[in-house]
């Protein structure tokens, strides 16, 4: 049985040097804290001197609350020192991509800015996903006048598991079915980056619970086997420090709870519930450690609101 020794800040393992990457793809089951990890990781990388861009995919925007910034729309916005963010939407991303490709806003409007072309692009399978994924990738290619990168690291806050996989499949589909041309060329460049472990890493986020654990293991297999993308880090969010030993958990769970409101009986029920959660956590961490390609890192359960700048700064310290 896997037994967690709670890791303090100085003991937090960092299995993948994410600061050496150009592109990070953060994904996982919905509700596991992907955006929280993106925010904390962005601050952690910025503290190491990196210029970081966080790209969200037409999301219900919460990052600005986490970082204490102005609301984030489809224009790139500074959200913290050395951190910028954008909430991409397909139509704005298509417009930006078209202007970059054609090198002319006038020509783009002539060719793309009509309802028939927009309807066509919405109907093409995978095109909306590619406009956002392609935009996030393109920001890794941006350079300043001195030749340095505009952003050292681009973090993609990818959609949840199923939609995230569908998005990551799109460049491979383009390479399989689209004839040579601009779209295929860019998809090939992006796909080469995504598969390069020196420059790209997938970050899987999960919780120490049964369903997120099972889904994360399946997701890791799809990313490794089907897409052959490099998994650089696995973050288990919301980990509780264990209060009970395995023997104490066994004893507590053997107790038949009552409905008594006496203080001792209430304390036993609370302890039993905590013990059961610790058991599920230990079993989940055991599965993740055995069945995933790299050992997970842990972020602690915060007992205050995690969607605050103070909480995100604390989590960034843990990641650092």
From TrEMBL:
It catalyses: arsenite(in) + ATP + H2O = arsenite(out) + ADP + phosphate + H(+). One of its GO terms (molecular function) is ATP hydrolysis activity. Gene3D superfamilies: P-loop containing nucleotide triphosphate hydrolases. PANTHER family: ARSENICAL PUMP-DRIVING ATPASE ARSENITE-TRANSLOCATING ATPASE, ATPASE GET3. Belongs to the arsA ATPase family. Its EC number is 7.3.2.7. Residues 22-174 form the ArsA/GET3 Anion-transporting ATPase-like domain. Pfam families: ArsA_ATPase (PF02374). Coiled coil: none annotated. InterPro entries: ArsA/GET3_ATPase-like, ATPase_ArsA/GET3, P-loop_NTPase. This is arsenite-transporting ATPase.
């Amino acid at each position: 049985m896997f037994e967690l020794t709670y890791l303090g800040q100085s003991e937090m393992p960092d299995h993948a040097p994410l600061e050496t990457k150009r592109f990070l793809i953060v994904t996982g089951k919905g509700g596991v804290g992907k955006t929280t990890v993106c925010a904390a990781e962005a601050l952690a990388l910025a503290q190491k001197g990196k210029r970081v861009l966080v790209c969200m995919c037409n999301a219900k925007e919460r990052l600005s609350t986490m970082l204490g910034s102005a609301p984030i729309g489809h224009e790139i916005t500074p959200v913290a020192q050395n951190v910028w963010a954008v909430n991409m939407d397909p139509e704005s991303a298509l417009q930006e991509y078209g202007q970059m490709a054609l090198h002319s806003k006038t020509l783009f409007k002539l060719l793309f800015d009509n309802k028939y072309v927009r309807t066509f692009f919405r109907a093409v399978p995978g095109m909306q996903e590619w406009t956002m994924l392609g935009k996030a990738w393109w920001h890794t290619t941006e350079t300043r006048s001195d030749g340095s990168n505009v952003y050292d690291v681009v973090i993609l806050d990818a959609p949840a598991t199923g939609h995230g996989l569908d998005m990551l499949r799109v460049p491979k589909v383009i390479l399989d079915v689209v004839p040579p041309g601009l779209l295929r060329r860019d998809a090939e460049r992006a796909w080469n980056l995504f598969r390069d472990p020196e420059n790209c890493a997938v970050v899987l986020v999960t919780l120490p619970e049964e369903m997120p654990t099972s889904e994360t293991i399946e997701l890791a297999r799809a990313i490794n086997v089907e897409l052959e993308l490099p998994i650089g880090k696995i973050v288990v969010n919301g980990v509780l420090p264990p209060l009970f030993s395995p023997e104490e958990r066994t004893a507590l769970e053997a107790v038949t709870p009552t409905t008594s409101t006496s203080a001792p009986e209430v304390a036993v029920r609370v302890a039993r519930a905590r013990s059961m959660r610790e058991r599920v956590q230990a079993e989940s961490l055991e599965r993740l450690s055995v069945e995933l390609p790299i050992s997970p890192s842990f972020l602690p359960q915060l007992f205050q609101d995690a969607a605050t700048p103070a909480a995100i700064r604390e989590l960034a310290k843990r990641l650092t």
